[in-house]
Automatic annotation (TrEMBL):
Protein name listed in UniProt: Multisubunit Na+/H+ antiporter subunit MnhE
Its membrane topology: Multi-pass membrane protein
Cell location: Cell membrane
Residues annotated as transmembrane: 12-30, 36-55, 67-92
Keywords attached to this entry: Cell membrane, Membrane, Transmembrane, Transmembrane helix
InterPro entries in the record: Cation_antiport_E
NCBIfam families: PRK08965.1-5
Disordered as annotated region, ranges: 177-196
Acidic residues composition-biased segments: 185-196
Single GO cellular component term: plasma membrane
MF annotations from Gene Ontology: monoatomic cation transmembrane transporter activity
Length: 196
């Protein structure tokens, strides 16, 4: 015999509202103008998505530190601007094309969520793209442009280490981090049926 599902909490409801608002905003942006028809159709599409294609619960295993997160955002934006100029220079400079390589980087992040954030950050930075992730060993294989010298290779590894350190400071401090429980990994305990 199973217990009936728990009633949705206010937190669950507010999260769904924010997802609906975000999906509606994306819909309006995709259409290019704000009109009543676009907003209403965006709400309808967003409602269909949230009801029929709900996202699974992502277990959060630490706390977010706002100042560290701000530092991470600033540093990543600096890397974005610097790398964009470097890639633009490589495209217009005279001479042979730059040497590229696939480099392996070891990360020490603990949660899959932070690993996914790290991969997304590395993919955003021009000049590198993550080709493969070894989730168990926390290895990234990235294609990197302009690694013709030891200095360039060291610069890539330094950049990876800085981003990793900032991610850990923002999301995975050792004093506050805990592994997700089996219940958190299984699904949303607020709305799921639990076996008796």
């Amino acid at each position: 015999m199973r217990k009936p599902p728990k009633k949705p909490t206010m937190r669950w409801f507010m999260l769904r509202i924010w997802v609906l608002v975000g999906l509606t905003a994306v819909w309006v942006l995709l259409w290019g103008n704000v009109s009543a028809a676009n907003v209403l159709s965006g709400l309808a599409v967003g409602l269909l998505i949230t009801v029929f294609l709900p996202l699974p619960r992502v277990p959060v295993q630490g706390k977010v530190h706002v100042l560290s997160l701000l530092n991470l955002v600033i540093r990543v934006n600096v890397y974005l601007v610097m790398s964009s100029f470097q890639i633009a220079w490589l495209a217009i400079r005279p001479g042979p094309p730059p040497r590229s390589a696939v480099l392996r980087a070891q990360l020490s992040v603990k949660s899959d969520l932070v690993l996914a954030l790290a991969v997304n950050i590395y993919n955003l930075i021009p000049g590198s793209i993550v080709l493969e992730i070894d989730q168990v060993r926390r290895l990234l294989y990235a294609h990197v442009i302009n690694v013709g010298s030891d200095k360039a290779v060291k610069q890539f590894y330094h950049q990876v280490a800085v981003v990793e350190r900032l991610l850990i400071a923002a999301f995975e401090r050792d004093s506050e981090w805990r592994p997700a429980s089996a219940e958190e990994l299984a699904g949303d305990p607020e709305t799921e049926e639990a076996p008796q």
